[in-house]
Specification:
7 helices, alpha/beta, 15% strand, single chain
């Protein structure tokens, strides 16, 4: 089938390779669809094979290009192996979107060490492992863009969000550092943190089934924000963006 792209999408994404973690559903799937629609070849990195392959199949039927890579972002060896494999198949990562995240909503007194390790490992260490592999390669090629999906929890926390807030706050600090190092190392490499408020996705609705959906934003809005960050010419920089529902209670 002929390649079908969105005429309003940034031309700079056509033919580029994007890697999206946690891309099988929710916000990740919305980002994958936007990037594929912009003409990028997208690797959907996730643990959920069935969902990811179904998404890739749907995009293929629409004339877009997407492939699945099973990945646990908490495993640095698996992350390194994926980048080595992509290099070997001449698919270096031009755009990295660190989207994969988990949460355990419990009071701190009831949390287990395993739960803390899972949340912080997925939300902070995983993105760092991916950045370690992607950034040095982007600098060597003098181009690329890293987008880290943050949260209002990186700025302001609430009860029963200890590990999640700690992970996202740490990722925000790491993103700021990476931005400064990119200014020093290679102006062709962009780094953007996107602080996203509440969204109508399984990540929110499975934990809070009684949530008022009218107070949540569509993940497509956040995916459009990712696309905007990638559209800015290299002479300018979008270091951080905030996109929240109008009624967001956790911002500012």
């Amino acid at each position: 089938m002929a390649d079908v792209t969105d005429d309003s999408a940034p031309d700079g994404l056509r033919g580029r390779h994007a890697l999206v973690t946690g891309g099988a559903r929710g916000l990740g799937a919305a980002i994958v669809r936007r990037l594929a629609g912009a003409g990028a070849l997208v690797t959907v990195a996730d643990l959920r094979r069935d969902l990811a392959e179904k998404l890739c199949g749907e995009l293929g039927e629409q004339g877009h290009r997407a492939t699945f890579a099973q990945l646990d972002v908490r495993d640095p060896a698996a992350v390194a192996d994926l980048f080595t494999e992509l290099d070997a198949t001449d698919r270096p990562v031009d755009v990295l979107v660190n989207n994969a995240a988990v949460d355990v909503s419990k009071p701190i007194e009831h949390l287990s060490p395993d739960e803390v390790t899972r949340v912080v490992g997925t939300n902070l260490l995983g993105p760092m492992y991916l950045c370690l592999e992607a950034y040095r390669r982007m600098v060597a090629r003098h181009r690329g863009h890293v987008v880290n999906i943050l949260s209002t929890a990186s700025h302001r926390t609430w009860t029963e969000a200890g590990p999640y807030s700690a992970g996202k706050a740490g990722l925000r600090a790491f993103t700021h550092t990476l931005f400064k190092e990119a200014q020093r190392d290679c102006l062709g490499v962009g780094v953007t943190g996107i602080i996203a408020g509440g969204m109508a996705t399984p990540f929110v609705l499975e934990r809070f089934p009684d949530a008022d959906r009218s107070l949540l934003q569509s993940p497509d809005i956040v995916a459009d924000t990712v696309l905007y960050a990638l559209s800015v010419p290299t002479g300018s920089a979008v270091a951080e963006l905030v996109v929240v529902p109008r009624s967001e209670s956790s911002w500012p």
